[in-house]
Amino acid sequence: MKEIDWANLSFGYMKTDYNVRINFREGAWGELEISSSEQVNLHMAATCLHYGQEAFEGLKAFRGKDGKVRIFRLEENAARLQSTCRGIMMAELPTERFKEAVLKAVKMNERFIPPYESGASLYIRPLLIGTGAQVGVRPSNEYMFLIFVTPVGPYFKGGFAATPYVITRKYDRAAPLGTGIYKIGGNYAASLRASHEAHAAGYSAEFYLDAKEKKYIDECGAANFFGIKDNTYITPLSSSILPSITNKSLMQLAEDMGMKVERRPVAEEELTTFEEAGACGTAAVISPIERIDDPENGHSYVIAKDGKPGPICTKLYNKLRGIQYGDEPDTHGWVTIVE
Ligand SMILES: *Cc1c(COP(=O)(O)O)cnc(C)c1O
């Protein structure tokens, strides 16, 4: 194998040695299968191709200074996938089976787990798709669960930095009683155009307002939003936000640091009051926000006045990364060590 340039990896797909699969047929999940094929053989009438029965997850494995490999909060990802499955009527994979598959996929591709010093990690992508042939609009009775892994580079190549974001008023990602709370491809399809336009205009990602009133901050691209003021961590409460495991973890860490935590609707005007703000998710942990523009409304909310990440974002970021890489004690039992 050619040497991998760990520090210069992007967030892209790189072929690894194996993927793992579990099929659901006749009402039951089968045995875990190990595959070295990158292809999936699908019936052309599979429900995932027509009616969007597709769910996914994203988590990471990290190699520590001690050489041990740690996976962050995988039981939370299992539970979220189950919730998504209930949401779009797919067979739920039990947590134990999810865990078995994640550990297998990581161990089988051990040589792709980046070294500690690189700041890179192994991205784990589980997906679950409806594979049964159906023409009428109905849930499938057959499913495939699959996990592939791929090494990904550090998100911040030039160091932890604050960047600009933009509010989109032209597009909604999800409806208040729709599927925004589930991690499904359909939500991403709904976001591609807004995301493309935001990037083309030089922004890191697009912010969505609540679809009903266009008044409250919902989500930011594929990340949750939080703001910091008066020693308080504030994150929006809404029925169309994907429950981020990173956000959940940051809320706990903020509380551990003696901060107050509030989950409540956050009106757009409140952006003027935050001392710091960030977008959070597995990819970056925290992506600090420099400013949020609302060009269609003629506003620009500058959050990082000096253009740099604030002290609380930096502290939260270092703490969470420290737990993931094993540099900080795992006091909440968030980490699974790969034996
Ligand atoms: C995956 C995802 C997130 C982040 O969730 P994490 O569990 O923190 O990675 C946020 N928003 C959306 C829409 C997502 O799909």
TrEMBL record:
Which cofactors are required for activity? pyridoxal 5'-phosphate
Q: Which InterPro entries match?
A: Aminotrans_IV, Aminotransferase-like, B_amino_transII, BCAT-like_C, BCAT-like_N, BCAT_family
GO BP terms in the entry? isoleucine biosynthetic process; L-leucine biosynthetic process; L-valine biosynthetic process
Could you say which EC number(s) this protein's record lists?
Answer: 2.6.1.42
GO: which molecular function terms?
L-isoleucine-2-oxoglutarate transaminase activity; L-leucine-2-oxoglutarate transaminase activity; L-valine-2-oxoglutarate transaminase activity
A Pfam family found in this protein is: Aminotran_4
Q: Which reaction does it catalyse?
A: L-isoleucine + 2-oxoglutarate = (S)-3-methyl-2-oxopentanoate + L-glutamate; L-valine + 2-oxoglutarate = 3-methyl-2-oxobutanoate + L-glutamate; L-leucine + 2-oxoglutarate = 4-methyl-2-oxopentanoate + L-glutamate
Q: Which residues carry this modification: N6-(pyridoxal phosphate)lysine?
A: 183
Q: In which pathway does it act?
A: Amino-acid biosynthesis; L-leucine biosynthesis; L-leucine from 3-methyl-2-oxobutanoate: step 4/4; Amino-acid biosynthesis; L-isoleucine biosynthesis; L-isoleucine from 2-oxobutanoate: step 4/4; Amino-acid biosynthesis; L-valine biosynthesis; L-valine from pyruvate: step 4/4
Q: Keywords of this protein's UniProt record, alphabetized?
A: Amino-acid biosynthesis, Aminotransferase, Branched-chain amino acid biosynthesis, Pyridoxal phosphate, Transferase
Q: Which family is annotated? A: Belongs to the class-IV pyridoxal-phosphate-dependent aminotransferase family.
Its biological purpose is as follows: Acts on leucine, isoleucine and valine.
Query: What protein name does the entry list?
Result: Branched-chain-amino-acid aminotransferase
Which species?
A: Bacteroides oleiciplenus
